[in-house]
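pasting for the record
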Amino acid sequence: MLHLLYILAFTILAVIAVANLIRNLIMFSFDRERNYPATRNQGRYGYPSVNKHFPPHPELLDNAGNLIKEPLLVMRSINVEDARQQLDALYESSPGRKVENQEES
């Protein structure tokens, strides 16, 4: 009798979970089709304008405190050998590497 109760309880939980999943998928699809108005506080370069109540994020500022005007992520393609040389140079210049060299001598 207890086995049937477990089967019934987990079946009900599974039906609730699947119904919740389907409902969320339908709501997300409706939400995706909805057009939202553009935010009013966007300034130049697509960054939010400076507001006295909400200062800009520190990563959007240069050393002088001005908004940066270049892209935040610039990807440059390099070949494997150049990447390996740069990683080797970083490894050789690391502080832990100097300690290992002294221990080996």
